[in-house]
Amino acid sequence: LRDRLKDPSLLREQCFIDGAWIGAGATVVTNPANGQELGKVPKMGADETTQAVEAAARAFPAWAKLTAKQRSNILRKWFELIVAHREDLALILTSEQGKPLAEALGEVDIGAAYVEFFAEEARRVYGETIPTQRADARLIAIKQPIGVCGAITPWNFPNSMITRKVSPALAAGCPVVLKPANETPFSALALAALAEKAGVPKGVFSVVTGHASAIGKVLCEHPAVRFVGFTGSTEVGKILYQQAAVGVKKLGLELGGNAPFIVFDDADIDAAVEGAMVSKYRNMGQTCVCANRIYVQDSVYDAFVDKLAAKVSAMKIGDGAEPGVTQGPLINEAAVEKTENHIADAVAHGAKVIVGGKRHALGGTFFEPTVLANVRPDALVAHEETFGPLAPVFRFKDEAEVIRLANNSPFGLASYFYARDIGRVWRVAEALESGMVGVNSGLITTEVAPFGGVKESGLGREGSHHGMEEYVEIKYVMMAGI
Ligand code: ADP
């Protein structure tokens, strides 16, 4: 991999703690497309995380004291460096994660867009003046950085999940200690190398790789940490929530989803098929906002399934770094097994395989993108996120029925629906229990809008000016004796 990078110094095999590159490679990182070793990263734990947190606590006052414009300028520089190195960052990303290079470039671009957005937002953290209740006093509310932050990120978006947390934190005046996913540390370390180059001061941004639970425990329990931002499984999110209770820390949690994707009979069916392709098969179905349950109304059901099947059959599967590939490998064997289980269970409940349905002839963790028809509401896939390239298509009769089915989940991250009737659009958008709704769009993530879930899908919002609020505390000041 190093030989294929324009700037080989972006591939770092050490952690970045308190402004220094330390540790030696211990854990092998492999390419999911071929199992080959890409390099090694250090296996660090509680001690090194404590060092990083203490360094962040030391760096905090000076970082918070800079003017918003000074912090903004450093973030802007980081943004420019990410853009300048986008091809290397994308190649690192595809190599450790598997997604097609075109998607990796897209992720680096949105990752950079978060940094750019929060570089701008840094200067707009306004407080308020409050009409007073007594004549001798004036009331104001100011916003101050919350303090040292921890960030724990997943492998499915190894670049943008980091910038979406780290850039608003830095913009607000908070230092961050990041633990990236063990499968994809090189994207994180490359971002740290560029942050260092951009002039982020020592201790303000550290990256620790290694024992997930040991690092996570320090981030949740160290008294200096005031906020932990996590994207990952609901299971781990709940562990962190409990750990953070000890010190009453604030948490941002972006957890699992089980997104319904609904096609009504008044929809533009071709547009709905396009939307389903993007929503379902992006990142081989490994995103928390991927359509997991596709509900199609009776009268357009067969047409939708035929058109979707034709598109899915035309996908090109292979190593994401090869030109024209639209589906890479899944992240690991467990992901393949879960997809297989969901298919077997749906078929046992009466579903029919229309396209795909099994491991791909390429071997490894490659899987055939799959479409299932006649899936019943009692199938496992109706209740659990697959996180793989499986599109189960359910049939429904009317609006009330599909809203009931869609909301029958403890999760509520994204929902999608296709319809043209304006009354229906409003009714359904309001009725769906999710933090985000895509109407006539299968792709809704953008740095300018608030991303997040309801129910067990999480707490808080990332992106937009709401994403900045996570990293500030409101302080009310009464000035009396006037
Ligand atoms: P996934 O199933 O998508 O890998 P996880 O929730 O296991 O999702 O992983 C998301 C992130 O959480 C990764 O960085 C992972 O290393 C980290 N992680 C896993 N277990 C723990 C834990 N007990 N405490 C803190 N972080 C953890």
Structural notes for this entry:
By secondary structure, the protein is α/β, with parallel strands linked by helices. Helices cover 39% and strands 21% of the residues. The protein is built from 14 helices and 22 strands. It has helices at 46-65, 68-84, 86-97, 101-121, 160-172, 185-198, 212-221, 234-245, 269-281, 298-313, 333-348, 399-407, 422-431, 464-469, and strands spanning 15-17, 20-22, 27-30, 37-41, 128-130, 138-145, 148-152, 176-179, 205-207, 225-231, 250-254, 259-263, 291-297, 352-355, 370-375, 390-396, 411-412, 414-418, 436-439, 454-455, 458-459, 472-479. Helix 2 (68-84) packs antiparallel against helix 4 (101-121). The structure holds adenosine-5'-diphosphate. Adenosine-5'-diphosphate (ADP) binds next to helix 7 and helix 8.
